[in-house]
Amino acid sequence: MEKLNIMLVGVGGQGTLLASRVLGAVALKKSFDVKVSEVHGMSQRGGSVVTYVKFGSKVYSPLVEKGDADIIMAFEQLEALRWVEYLKDGGKMLINDQKINPMPVIIGKAKYPENIIEKVKENYNNIVSIDALKLAKECGNIKAVNIVLLGLMAKSTHIEKDVWIEAIKEVVPQKVLDINLKAFEAGYNS
Amino acid sequence: MKKLMLGNEAVARGAYEAGVTVAAAYPGTPSTEITENIAKYDEIYSEWSPNEKVSLEVAIGACIAGARSICSMKHVGLNVAADPLFTASYTGVNAGLVIMVADDPGMHSSQNEQDSRFYARASKVPMLEPADSQECKDFVKQAFEISEKFDCPVFVRLSTRIAHSQSVVELGEKVDFKLKDYNKDFNKYVMMPAMARKRHVEVEKRMAALREFSNTSEINKIEWGSKEIGVITSGIAYQYAREVFGDVSYLKIGMVHPLPEKLIADFAKEVKTLYAIEELEPFIENQVRKMGINVIGKDLLPVVGEYSAQLIKEKVFGEKVETKTLINDVVPVRPPVMCPGCPHRGMYYVIKKLKLTVSGDIGCYTLGALPPTECMDTCICMGASVSAAHGMEKARGKEFGKKTVAVLGDSTFIHSGITGLIDIVYNKGNSTVIILDNSITGMTGHQHNPTTGFTIKGEPTRQVDLVKLSNAVGVDRVKVVDPFDLKEFEKIVKEEIEADEPSVIISQRPCALLKDVKFEGPLKINSEKCKMCKMCLKIGCPALVDKGEFIEINDALCVGCELCTKLCSCAAIEKAGDNNGKA
Lengths: 190, 583
Ligand SMILES: Cc1ncc(C[n+]2csc(CCOP(=O)(O)OP(=O)(O)O)c2C)c(N)n1
What we know:
Chain A is an alpha/beta fold and about 190 residues long. Chain A has helices at about 15-30, 75-85, 105, 115-125, 130-140, 145-155, 160-170, 175-190, and strands at about 5-10, 35, 50-55, 70-75, 85-95, 125-130.
């Protein structure tokens, strides 16, 4: 693997930051050069957020450009639709089938598009969807959605499972580690 | 040891390795995590100051007293700190002083897109600009050496993508920096005209020496490749340029002020076509042009917004990146919103109902300017809500004043709202000021401030008493009220705007994201009781979903704050009894 461009897209507050930190730790363990571009500040308050993670032998720009993402992990359906154009030919998208209405939809100024997952699947090849919210809930906390998704993603890379688990242990706070390890397994085995 | 670090975290590490012992800052995206990370080092005294001016003055005092000191702020914070900056440039330092300033091209979280490099030039203070986290650490250390060698403060400028990107950093050892002797030096540190005149001469000498340093220091370096194209660039723009231009020659500028003019001239001579690639203003480009050198830059590239490799590719080479839009649905935008459970929501419900003019300010509550609340008329800079409300009243008279309130957060009030309040009292205004005391500095991600009762390290400290403070400056009418008690809140606002004297209303309820704020878990709507009056939707909570036939509560979002239940006349909103799997 020469390089791997990953995007995590979702809604501020969904835990994309923690997931990207685990990815960073994975890259470091595999001795890749890596850059992780995070979102802090205003968008974290329920706005559309995107985090870029780039692995490679040498990474310059921290941003993934349109048509250049190997993997996009979408934490929410509408955000999947917003960012799907960033997938490269043959790229893979993992979609959490959760829906969160943005304010324009809530106040009736816009419509939440219908059948997003079906449409994305019709138009792109490597699309996997998952009810990560349900799995996270079963593991003991809906906040673990991010790690469920990471589990799913781990399975679609060539990086060993142990490396992922070690990275989670490094990044996730001790208090919630057990729940998150369970969540990882749930995603991995889904 | 190698570690993956945010640019901001690497700056903190650099400060630690440089032997810094005093750090002061006021939070501001994208600079906040610098000082949050510094606070983790026990060796360093760190503080959240009430505002940027104070933080810079603390750092100046500390460096004069002999400690290596660092002060961090976002670009607009530098406007607030500009006064001490310009004169600290004259006094110079004893131990090193580094000023971190973080610009926000693209305005991810800012009210303007100013380019802080002009401050370096205007104040005659050198400025370094790192291009990744490793350089963040290295440049900070080097900045201390430059500061001491040339007897001046030194800027290190970041931009959002440097501050908030993680990349690999090789950790180093902490240098053994001993507190320098403190000697009273009237001529150097007391800037009265007679002394300042002499210091200005020193400043000019220093600039000449720094220009020479810039030419010879390895901080500015040439990476030779094909000489068909030469690119002068710095900071994050360097990273984008590398991806776009590939194997050409680069002059990577690490010291953006003063620029290495001789090096630039030498570089320009060797290459066939010269580009200057920089975000925001043509700061480097114009200086290159002034040297009589032809350079391509802002004639192709915008001064507005953030760059990316793709944008540069498009503008410079006219290469449009082909992406196929396969799905034609209109994708609604998703602007940020006040969180479920946010105390500001109750306040805005009342303000909207009373149709008041809102002189607004900067914080989470600025989100109340957007639909559905749309309750803010102005937002200029921190603290402006209070003084601008006063100006509105003075312009349009008392009756207008009685339909106007100033709205600002606790941190913002302390930052610079208090001076406006003093102005209102002093100059016989009648304005009503609503201070949103949510027990934290919210927007920037939960920092303590003088009203919270804790220091940056979480140690208990004296808490500013907002009631007594307001009383002390001459406001007799001060009310404290819970914004979720909608009836009481409305009653108080009505009374206070009517009063023929200034009033302060302290809207008190902690931020819903604070750890000790506990609600009882999601609510649900009992469809048998719900009469679809849609009153609950008026608060604009993202967890309430209008499904057309019925209203639903998104249980992944709802925290159970129960604000909506206060508007429900049919008692249809009940506890869902499911705590999202949480024990
Ligand atoms: C001069 C300046 N410094 C810092 C900032 C960054 N900033 C924006 S909002 C904010 C804090 C607001 O906190 P508070 O007033 O308590 O309101 P809350 O977000 O908690 O509602 C800060 C520090 C800024 N915009 N301008």
